[in-house]
Structure of NtaA/DmoA family FMN-dependent monooxygenase:
Amino acid sequence: MTAARRQMHLAAHFPGVNSTTVWADPRSRSQIDFSSFEHLARTAERGLFDFFFLAEGLRLREHKGLIHDLDVVGRPESITVLNALAAVTDRLGLAATVNTTFNEPYELARRLASLDHLSGGRAAWNVVTSSDAFTGENFRRGGYLDRADRYTRAAEFVRTARGLWDSWTPDGTPRRFAHHGRHFTVEGEFTVPRSPQGHPVVIQAGDSDEGREFAASTADVVFSRHTTPEAARAFYADVKARLARHGRTRDELTVMPGVSVVIGDTDAEAQEKAAEIRRQQVSPQNAILALELVWGRDLSSYDPDGPLPAVDPDPDADPDSGIVRGRVRIADPLAVAAKWRALSEAKGLSIRQTVIETAGRQSFIGTPAGVAAALDAYVRTEAADGFILVPHLTPGGLDDFVDRVVPLLQERGAFRTGYTGTTLRSHLGLAEPVWED
């Protein structure tokens, strides 16, 4: 008997304030207007995607003490937006990124449970952490959390939230709840009955050893950054292998790398479009910004069309008060600089060309048929269970993919031809959490 064909999962990420989004394109629209969120969400639902994914921004990033130009449009609060989208979608999952460092379990569990009820069981929570004092300045407690405690607090936060969600019986009876832990003490009664899918789906995106272990022990979906076949398969195998020691099976965690797609009528046309998108994403300004993020120095006097700096990165640069603030820190800037120099020297690249070559390259480029085959191969060879698409345009960046690639995936038997359930857990093939008395 032939084994059932593996079908992929698809999700859509609303582009945030970063150089992935090409704001200069005349087709680009507002990042604030509800119509932009609605267009992308409706497109994702038309394409039968599992969920729509919003990032979080708790502080506007700064460059040399000024708010970075790409951030001046602002960052709406994600659960508020998703509550509105629940009214204009029927099946699409709604995933909010919410930080465990600057929130409290009771309040957040209540907001997520409310979204799950309003949407009929389509809520998800992307769990993120922070030890960033710069972001913490926006909050009463500041940057108080030691970096080593990020995941211990996050794990206790998720356990507490799940305990609150379980404090109502399936037949609608509330029970008193009490949690006493290192980070939280919560006692009382939860105000929201058990949600339509039991618990909102939990997503996680950390790639460190701690992050992978947290995903294996806690998450339903892991958002991976690995998009080359070898790295993706290694990450997939590593995370899936960790599940058994937490009493979980391989099917209980869905691995979905974030990817970008560029399609054309021919491979040559797709490559040309991809190259132009990369030139738009990495403007001269963005090239110097990317360089300063690695070097930790003011490099504004350098020509983006000139060579890389001869000076090494500053190993003592303070990430909380440096040239660029509010971005993810570079773990080993000296190693990154050495890699960039080797590439630049080998290919004769300028600063801007080097950044184009190294930063956020498109994952899948080709004809619709070629892209469909490549995505299918990733899933069949266990490099991923599916993909979170990150378009370069807001809000129409998914239109071509849904119109031209999704039908080919369906023809291959690699993707659903209709929703078979109403909740996000049903889309992902996840069982509802078992309620225990």
User: Anything to note?
Assistant: The chain has two domains: 9-265+362-428, 283-358. The longest strand covers residues 93-99. DSSP finds 14 helices and 15 strands in the chain. The chain has a mean pLDDT of 89.
